[in-house]
């Protein structure tokens, strides 16, 4: 937007062009240089407009960022300076520019656009409306209704996404049938505690998008998956990924948005879509929000700590799905199996039970029960278990300013350094000695920080090497796409076939093992055939060889 000076220049030019005054009189009237008016009349451009080619973002892109900031504020989540920078860098990355923006870019951006500015956020209102309060629910439904009407979003373009986690062979206790002579029956639970995260998404019309399975591990292994015939039929459109914790992260969330949600919910025309999701950190990154906005996807975040009432997948889908899943794994809990077999069992059980839990009926029921569609806030606001009346917050006492310190202490942050410098500059006695003391203590703090950083780097290096030592050996890792996308089902099939062909590695024989086996062979040979010739035919020796002690 134009500055006050630019507006005065435009008024002066208008008066000159209309013949109301000369260049000199217009310059005096509006307090602008006559040379500037003369240059403008001869076709020169304003300084900012003339230098737009030097800006990282074009004017159109910057207006796009401005619109996004205003839209986010209307949604109740005005972005911070760092989030705006992250959003702008995500736009640049779409064009192949991955260089970071300058440290002063955000300040210049705000000076160029008067429609947005920095201001303090109202934390008190956020505190009053957090958790399950009537104000929090009302604000959520108001935002939802505003975006649906403002962008003319049709029901078919409304979807909800959520992650849920479970153990690979998760089981639970329940009602069983047994002997009438005892009051309680004990059932076996699985020892497998490896975590798996599943990302599920459903639309208002009851359409289920492709699920995304996130295994715990350092890579995907071919032996984790069922045979090729099953993969090509039952898991062809499923997405698979991994993380060291088994939880989703920002990279997985972004891949899900690009490879699952956007292509599978593509509208017929140039229509807006609406995606309802929680405020997990992986959903609030600059890349995630920018990708959604660039593809005309309006994100609506659920109020914090209200998913038990507003997250429709939690209410009507996941509870039923997990119940079916635990019933399916109950019969397998007593079987001890390898990690690969447990993962295949998980896929089989989840394939069968998710068809029941993620049914169209359950998804549509979830939208209706939460009042998201048809839009009906009373579904939640009239629930006495869901809504808590907000309470007046106690007045926070003002913290008195700290008393000025006259002695020197080891600085821990830059503010401490400035405090010391101020004390020296105000004419404290023996300023030379005090300055030396200040520098010595500053050096001490820096040395301590450097030592701490070196120690942390050493710990990271040690943990990295330890992690590498635990990587599985002799297995077939699934080939990953160089574009950092979800692994293709064709690569999983190839790794599965390769893992079935790869021979098992023999245990490395040590010198001590060789000596012990040699003595054992001599004893066994002497016991079976004193002459020693029958040792090679001895079945016991054959067993020893089979166990891997003899190579």
TrEMBL record:
Region (Disordered): 34-57, 394-418, 494-519
Highest taxon of source: Eukaryota
Domain HTH CENPB-type residue range list: 49-119
Localization in the cell: Nucleus
Keywords: Coiled coil, DNA-binding, Nucleus
Biased composition (Polar residues): 34-49, 409-418
Chief place of localization: nucleus
Any matching Pfam family: DDE_1
SUPFAM superfamilies the record matches: Homeodomain-like (SSF46689)
A GO term from the CC aspect: nucleus
PANTHER family: POGO TRANSPOSABLE ELEMENT WITH KRAB DOMAIN, TRANSPOSON
Protein name as catalogued: HTH CENPB-type domain-containing protein
């Amino acid at each position: 937007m134009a500055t006050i000076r630019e507006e005065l220049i435009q008024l002066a030019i208008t008066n000159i062009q209309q013949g109301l005054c000369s260049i000199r009189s217009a310059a005096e009237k509006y307090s602008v240089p006559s040379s500037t008016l003369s240059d403008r009349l001869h076709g020169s451009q304003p300084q900012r407009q003339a230098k737009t080619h030097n800006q990282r973002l074009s004017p159109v892109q910057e207006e796009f960022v401005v619109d996004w900031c205003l839209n986010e504020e209307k949604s109740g989540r005005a972005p911070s300076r760092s989030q705006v920078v992250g959003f702008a860098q995500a736009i640049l990355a779409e064009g192949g520019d991955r260089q970071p923006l300058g440290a002063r870019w955000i300040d210049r951006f705000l000076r160029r656009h008067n429609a947005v500015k920095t201001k303090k956020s109202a934390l008190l209102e956020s505190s009053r409306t957090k958790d399950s309060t009537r104000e929090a629910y009302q604000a959520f439904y108001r935002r939802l209704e505003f975006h649906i009407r403002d962008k003319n979003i049709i029901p078919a373009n409304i979807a909800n996404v959520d992650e849920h986690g479970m153990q690979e062979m998760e089981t639970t206790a329940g009602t069983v049938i047994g002997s009438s002579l005892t009051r309680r029956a004990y059932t076996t639970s699985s020892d497998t505690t490896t975590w798996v995260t599943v990302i599920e998404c459903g639309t208002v019309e009851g359409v289920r998008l492709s699920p995304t399975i996130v295994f715990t591990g350092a890579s995907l292994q071919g032996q984790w998956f069922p045979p090729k015939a099953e993969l090509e039929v039952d898991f062809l459109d499923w997405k698979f990924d991994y993380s060291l914790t088994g939880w989703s992260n920002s990279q997985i969330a972004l891949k899900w948005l690009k490879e699952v949600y956007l292509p599978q919910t593509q509208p017929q025309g140039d229509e807006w879509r609406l995606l309802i999701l929680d405020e997990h950190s992986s959903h609030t990154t600059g890349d995630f929000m920018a990708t959604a906005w660039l593809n005309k996807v309006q994100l609506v975040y659920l109020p914090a700590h209200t998913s038990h009432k507003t997250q429709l997948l939690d209410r009507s889908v996941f509870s039923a799905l997990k119940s079916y899943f635990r019933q399916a794994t109950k019969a397998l809990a007593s079987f001890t199996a390898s990690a690969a077999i447990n993962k295949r069992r998980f896929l089989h059980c989840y394939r069968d039970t998710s068809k029941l839990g993620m049914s169209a009926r359950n998804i549509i029921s979830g939208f209706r029960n939460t009042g998201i569609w048809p839009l009906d806030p009373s579904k939640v606001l009239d629930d006495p278990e869901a809504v808590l009346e907000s309470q007046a917050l106690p007045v926070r006492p003002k913290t008195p300013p700290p008393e000025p310190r006259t002695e020197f202490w080891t600085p821990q942050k830059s503010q401490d350094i400035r405090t010391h410098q101020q004390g020296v500059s105000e004419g404290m006695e023996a300023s030379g000695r005090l300055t030396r003391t200040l520098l010595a203590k500053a050096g001490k703090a820096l040395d301590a920080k450097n030592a701490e950083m070196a120690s942390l780097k050493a710990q990271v290096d040690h943990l990295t090497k330890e992690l590498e030592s635990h990587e599985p050996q002799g297995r077939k890792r699934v080939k990953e796409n160089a574009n950092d996308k979800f692994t293709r089902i064709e690569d999983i099939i190839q790794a599965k076939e390769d893992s079935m062909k790869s021979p098992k590695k023999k245990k490395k024989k040590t010198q001590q093992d060789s000596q012990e086996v040699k003595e054992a062979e001599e004893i066994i040979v002497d016991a079976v055939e004193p002459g020693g010739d029958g040792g090679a035919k001895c079945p016991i020796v054959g067993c020893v060889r089979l166990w891997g002690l003899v190579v």
